[in-house]
């Protein structure tokens, strides 16, 4: 039997991937031109945009408004070229109205660049032309967002614009002084707290470069390397294919930052293997979707969220990475524990070793691709270089290192292809960041964020646990159907301040809302990652979503752990305390897995499952007494289960 590698994939799976991406990730619904001139035009435009961002990251960006306005213009221009107006709009050509929209997008940047000094000086007192151009920009951004991501962000933005206009007539804490359209446009267009604010700044610098880094890595074979390495390490163990899905999806998800894209990329390979091993359709889909969502929580890249969080909090990137590591590992441990227990309960075996690639062979063939990642981590954490400078050299290092072996070597055309794909991938993220800028602009102008925080605290009656629960629900509702980065930006603006007002460290508060904004991708009724996984597995979408929540249960509890136990984020702690709380957290996560699966050495009754879950909750805080009770419950459960397991084996009837 031939060895199983990433290449062993159903030839029809590519079509299935494209279908699912188009269905569950609206960002993938782009035009496919049939005229060679249009194909080449878009290709070279995307390469030019990529080169602008790549080169300026090394030599330095233009002034703030100049760089951000040009970036937004480029992204809007590409949106109207790539994304049709509607399902019935032309997909092979570019209609006249989209050419007009594209030119209007450029005209806004030309306006800013052509009158830059006076434009900045008019901040606070915009003239009529400023209002006209600002209005055009807002309309273009909203329309671009609608085409790419659908209506959710557009409706939310329109509601906030309406709130800015009529807020003086609202009752209670949400009333504000009220603003006319001129004042709103001034804040959203000319000020750096609106469309040209922090979110677009991060998209134009960090996100663009790291998405390019991901596409270059993918082009030289990093995806295959992660899959083959995971197969070599875990494929032969009990329930091996599911563990392969968890490991490979975690690594890839950290780099590409899209849960749905990660599901259809790695899931096309791992889900059939899981089903072949004996996992149900729903469980196989849930493993893939849960692991793919978790990639955005996993350092070092975290789907670019780490850079946004660092920018919003005003801390170093390294601080975010170090703080995020233990919670992310706990999340993945929770999934792996359930996978292992499910395999033990159903006696699901792994893949025979002789059918798997060997670790040594995989490392010899593609192991050198780890060098750019190690180099990036060194640059980010130890060299003192800026994030942007580090990303630039990481891309260069990837290209250079890939040339050392024939199997990973990229031609000049493939490098250009990677740059082009990088630009196309950035468009959806950049537009989302721009439209979120409208929301953030209104929030900062009206004080809505502070009012929202006060409302959450009032509803929670200043009780931390109740406030955390309300914040969790708020984040998951706000994150429904949204890409990860805008989901985090919105929740960080509206929900995190409530936790900070209750004395939670800002980093812990932001990490808390980030986790639950991500989990909206796997939580019904709008569980895009779970539904995409169900499309690959053939399982029921809603059941797959519910199974994803069950698999990710440890992840739902981990944020509460680091709120009550900030040592898990390595905030203001000693090595001894950090190690102690990490150990109790690991035990707690394992107990959650036992309670969820209802199995250890044999099936657990409901009383033992309740005790296991209670023990896990007791291990959330750093209270020594509660830790002792939780550990005692663990000992009782293990001893009872070991005895019950031996008894079950003795009573088992031998098979003929």
- Count of helical segments? 30
Structural class: mainly alpha
Fraction in beta strands = under 5%
Q: How many strands, which pairing sense, and closed or not: the largest β-sheet?
A: none
Q: SSE string, helix = H, strand = E?
A: HHHHHHHHHHHHHHHHHHHHHHHHHHHHHH
Q: pLDDT average, as an integer?
A: 87
End-to-end separation in angstroms reads: 29 Å
Give structural notes:
It is a single chain. By secondary structure, this protein is mainly α. The protein is built from 30 helices and no strands. The protein is globular, with a radius of gyration of 25 Å.
List keywords for this structure.
single chain, 656 residues, mainly alpha
Furnish the topology, listing elements before pairings.
Layout: H1 13-24, H2 36-59, H3 64-82, H4 96-114, H5 116-121, H6 128-149, H7 152-166, H8 181-190, H9 198-219, H10 222-234, H11 240-256, H12 259-277, H13 281-294, H14 305-313, H15 317-346, H16 359-366, H17 370-381, H18 387-402, H19 412-446, H20 448-459, H21 464-478, H22 484-494, H23 496-501, H24 506-519, H25 528-537, H26 541-551, H27 553-564, H28 575-597, H29 606-618, H30 624-651
């Amino acid at each position: 039997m031939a060895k199983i590698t990433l290449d062993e994939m159903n030839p029809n799976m590519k079509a299935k991937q494209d279908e699912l991406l188009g269905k569950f990730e609206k960002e993938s619904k782009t035009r496919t031109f049939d005229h060679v001139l249009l194909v080449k035009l878009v290709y070279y435009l995307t390469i030019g945009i990529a080169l602008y961002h790549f080169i300026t990251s090394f030599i330095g960006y233009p002034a703030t408004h100049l760089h951000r306005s040009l970036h937004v213009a480029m992204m809007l221009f590409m949106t109207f070229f790539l994304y049709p107006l509607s399902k019935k709009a032309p997909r092979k050509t570019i209609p006249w109205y989209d050419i007009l929209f594209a030119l209007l997008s450029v005209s806004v940047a030309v306006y800013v660049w052509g009158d830059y000094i006076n434009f900045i000086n008019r901040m606070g007192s915009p003239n009529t032309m400023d209002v006209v151009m600002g209005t055009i920009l807002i309309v273009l951004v909203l329309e671009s967002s609608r085409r790419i991501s659908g209506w959710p962000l557009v409706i939310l933005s329109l509601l906030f614009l309406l709130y800015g206009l009529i807020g003086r007539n609202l009752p209670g804490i949400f009333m504000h002084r009220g603003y006319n359209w001129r004042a709103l446009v001034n804040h959203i267009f000319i000020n750096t707290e609106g469309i040209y604010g922090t979110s677009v700044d991060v998209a134009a610098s960090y996100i663009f470069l790291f998405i390019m880094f991901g596409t270059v890595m993918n082009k030289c074979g990093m995806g295959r390397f992660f899959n083959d390495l995971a197969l070599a390490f875990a494929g032969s163990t009990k329930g091996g294919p599911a563990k392969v899905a968890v490991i490979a999806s975690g690594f890839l998800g950290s780099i590409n930052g899209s849960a749905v894209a990660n599901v259809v990329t790695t899931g096309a390979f791992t889900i059939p293997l899981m089903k072949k091993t004996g996992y149900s359709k729903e469980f196989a889909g849930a493993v893939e979707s849960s692991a793919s969502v978790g990639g955005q929580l996993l350092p070092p890249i975290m789907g670019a969220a780490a850079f946004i969080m660092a920018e919003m909090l005003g801390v170093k990137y390294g601080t975010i990475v170090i703080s995020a590591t233990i919670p992310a590992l706990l999340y993945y441990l929770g999934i792996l524990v359930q996978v292992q227990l499910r395999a033990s309960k159903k006696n699901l075996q792994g893949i025979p070793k002789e059918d798997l690639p060997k670790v040594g062979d995989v490392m010899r063939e593609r192991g050198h691709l780890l060098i750019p990642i190690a180099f990036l981590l060194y640059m980010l954490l130890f060299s003192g270089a800026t994030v942007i400078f580090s990303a630039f050299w990481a891309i260069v290092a990837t290209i250079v290192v890939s040339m050392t072996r024939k199997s990973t070597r990229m031609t000049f055309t493939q490098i250009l292809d990677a740059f082009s794909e990088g630009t196309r991938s950035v468009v959806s993220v950049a537009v989302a960041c721009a439209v979120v800028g409208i929301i953030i602009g209104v929030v900062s102008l009206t004080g809505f964020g502070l009012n929202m925080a006060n409302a959450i605290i009032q509803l929670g009656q200043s009780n931390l646990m109740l406030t955390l629960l309300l914040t969790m629900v708020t984040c998951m509702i706000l994150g429904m159907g949204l890409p990860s980065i805008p989901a985090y930006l919105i929740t960080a603006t509206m929900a995190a301040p409530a936790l900070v007002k209750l004395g939670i460290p800002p980093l812990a508060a932001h990490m808390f809302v980030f986790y639950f904004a991500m989990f909206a991708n796997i939580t019904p009724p709008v569980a895009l990652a779970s539904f995409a996984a169900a499309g690959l597995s053939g399982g029921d979408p809603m059941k797959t979503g519910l199974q994803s929540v069950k698999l990710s249960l440890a992840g739902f509890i981990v944020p509460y752990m680091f709120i009550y136990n900030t040592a898990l984020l390595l905030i203001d702690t000693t090595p001894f305390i950090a190690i102690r709380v990490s150990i109790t957290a690991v035990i707690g996560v394992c107990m959650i897995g036992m309670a969820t699966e209802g199995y250890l050495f044999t099936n657990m009754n409901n009383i033992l499952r309740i005790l296991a879950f209670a023990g896990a909750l007791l291990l959330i805080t750093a209270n020594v007494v509660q830790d002792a009770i939780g550990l005692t419950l663990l000992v009782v459960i293990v001893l009872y289960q070991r005895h019950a397991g031996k008894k079950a084996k003795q009573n088992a009837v031998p098979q003929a």
